[in-house]
Amino acid sequence: MPHRHIAEARILEAIGVDYIDESEVLTPADNNYHIDKNDFKVPFVCGCRDLGEALRRVGEGSSMLRTKGEPGTGNIIEAVRHMQKVNEQIRQVTSAKPEHLMAIARDLRATYELVKQVHDLGKLPVVNFAAGGVSTPADAALMMNLGADGIFVGSGIFKSENPAKFAKAIVTATAHPTDYSLIAEVSKNLGNPMKGIELSTLTEDQKMAPRGVE
């Protein structure tokens, strides 16, 4: 069975990377198939916009999930939407009767075993980080309060006026997401954040969130 960008993934594994982001970092090479991540030793992180997409990636062997968002935009709205959607669907699965889980699995296009796992645990079977548009300490705190297990930040730090201070402030906000006095304190004198991009100005080719959706 052909897979998306499997040669790049094998090269990254060979050079000893800590993990591979299938949804964003690897070059799209096959619109129909995702990599069988169970066949790799290196862990994979994959983006998800809803519970069905999350469980399909876990079924393929993903060790970690993240919201897709729109990276490099400084616009948090997509990451918020994805996290809320996943959490809403988890609540629906958790409150469902056991005899309804097979139908839910069919609708989500996920395996019954993974849906039952979510039902029994009340959460995803792997961690789910927030990513895509996180650019301020307040963004990080918001996503943690929405149920993220952690935060991925790239452009939000490196495209800010003072990357070192922004990084430290975002780490503090992630670790103490409800200590708003502390977050306010570490947010002082940070300089300008990265320049935000309105999502409606992005062309379809520029958008990352729909990438890798089958």
What topology does this entry show?
Layout: H1 6-14, E1 20-21, E2 44-48, H2 51-59, E3 64-67, H3 77-95, H4 101-108, H5 112-121, E4 127-130, H6 137-145, E5 150-151, H7 155-158, H8 163-175, H9 180-186
Parallel strand pairs: 1-2, 2-3, 3-4, 4-5
How would you describe the overall organization of this protein?
The chain is α/β, with parallel strands linked by helices. 41% of the residues lie in helices and 8% in strands. The chain contains nine helices and five strands, in the order αββαβαααβαβααα. It has helices at residues 6-14, 51-59, 77-95, 101-108, 112-121, 137-145, 155-158, 163-175, 180-186, and strands at residues 20-21, 44-48, 64-67, 127-130, 150-151. It has a five-stranded parallel sheet with strand order 1-2-3-4-5. α6 (137-145) links the parallel β4 (127-130) and β5 (150-151). The longest helix is centred in the middle third of the chain and has 19 residues, at 77-95. It is globular, with a radius of gyration of 18 Å. Residues 198-207 have low confidence and may be disordered.
